[in-house]
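Table S2 (text version). Query chain:
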Amino acid sequence: MPSASRSTILRRRFAVLGGLLVVILLGGYFATTSIAALPASAATLTQPAALTQPATAMAWPGIGEGAIGAVGYDGVLGSNGSQAAVPIASITKMITSLVLLEAKPLAATEAGPALKFTDADVQIYYDVLAQDGSVAPVVSGMVLSQRQALEGMLLPSANNYSITLANWAFGSVDAYLKVARAWLTDHGLTGTTIADTSGLSPLSASTPADLVEIGKLVLKNPALASIVSEKTATLPTIGTVTNTNEMLGEHGVDGIKTGTTDEAGACLLFSADFTVGDKTVTLVGVLLGGTTHNSLDADIGRLIESVKPGFREVALTQAGAPYGAYASVWGQNGTVVAAEPASALVWSDTPVTGVATARSVGVGSNGDAVGSLDFTVGTEKISVPLVLEGTLSDPGPGWRFTHPGELLASR
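Corresponding structure-token output:
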């Protein structure tokens, strides 16, 4: 074969091979850019502003000591006076009730087992009367349910019933006191000491902060919470007994227990409900060392009314509120928005802060979860999902083919 023909064939083969190589390279490039992961766009975020509320001034009386808290809120909201442990008079009966109901539980409206009163209980009545303690009548042979006996102890504040119940549940007052002291320790009520079942002894003492916690425990017990809210109760044999708490029904008060001795003065552990928006706030407070119950009740009324405005429902965010934006390198845009509204019940000047976080996104559909909006309200945490508003779609083969640098940089 002539050398010229051989050279032509080689040139043609090289051309074909070169063309094939170009086709292969272009095909590989096209395939690679077609399936390459798109670069993710980081969100540019706007953080929510901290919310501030004015501090609440409470109307405390000029005498005694006290504290006030609320169910669902740790500790106390405010206090007044020395906060030392002082005699608590018949508020002691709430400890007796809680300890007894832990040993002998009752459902909310359950009557419970029967107690038969004996000559020994009649003698207890006369012993307490001789000590100038508060009493309710007893008759040897009469039978009351456990709930009725508790009503006899708590509504008219009968010291003799507190002793009878302790004897019934624990065998003796001394056995009860041993269990009750362990109960106080178990519940972290280190500022409280008890020397009897009724509070007639001045050695039965507590701090306002402990009493607020005791009040919260009372409200957690459905049977006890219902009893302390009763204005009257009708008991077999002895008839109607009346609650010594004359604040029931006033200023939202629905419990809990009065107390009066020379050492303690006029005392009241109280609970009160009111609404803020669609939420119910339950206050638990105590005032100790009042001069009379009339003046004490007036002081508590003013205190409750001064506390109520301190609870506010604060809007944290609205559904659709924007908190950031995405801008893809191929020119599409999306917004980071709150998925739902959120609000919080805020007490006084409790700080409210929020942080928005969002992940980087390559492609995404409208409504996709992209992050969260996390609020801190005091010790409470509230989280709201953040979602994508808009669509970040694949830019298509044209953009992919002409932007290899962006695609390779995202790998």
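Notes on Table S2: The CA atoms of residues 318 and 341 lie 4 Å apart. DSSP finds eleven helices and 19 strands in the chain.
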